[in-house]
Design goal:
Layout (H helix, E strand, L loop, with lengths): L1 H9 L5 H10 L2 H12 L2 H14 L24 E5 L4 E6 L2 E8 L12 E4 L2 E8 L5 E10 L3 E5 L10 E3 L1 H10 L5 E5 L1
Parallel strand pairs: 1-9, 7-8
Antiparallel strand pairs: 1-2, 2-3, 4-9, 5-6, 6-7
Helix pairs in contact: 2-3
Length: 188
Amino acid sequence: MAIAFLATACGTPEASGPVAAPSSSTSSSTSSSAAPTSESPVAPTETAETTATTKTPDPQPAPPPPPVTVPGTPCDITEGACVRLSTNESWLISGGKISYGPVPTTSGMPGYETPVGYHSVLWKVELDYSRDFGMAEMPYSTYFVSNGIAFHEGSLTDPSHGCIHLSREAAAKYFHTLRVGDQVQVTA
């Protein structure tokens, strides 16, 4: 009897083997105890399957897709201005498409690098002067970094002190097109 109880507690199919053999040589009361033993293995088997299922690691979500760049530019913004420092060029973007450019640029010299990243147009001044650099004229200044970095008309051969120099035509176009709050993305 102890063997039958142990086999039932483990929930193995062999439990019906040892219980059936003694029940044929003993009284009918032993046979009635065998009936509950045949039902017992079902519940532990279901529990074992449930435990195995819960230990399976949850599937990991797929990584996010890479940002979609605006065709013809290295930028992923859909409205504003895009700058690529390595090729000295810039674009205006509207509705996820190039609306103007590429136009030639110059940017910050060593020690005055133009900051890479996402910025916003902060303010605009049609004719500003650089107080830090000899009151140099900065026509059509469109500022996008709070320490004074802007798009403006400037030399297309000499590097700047961090600003993005544009031709007079391009600087005027950027000034009149970009609004305060528009995005500016600068890439390496």
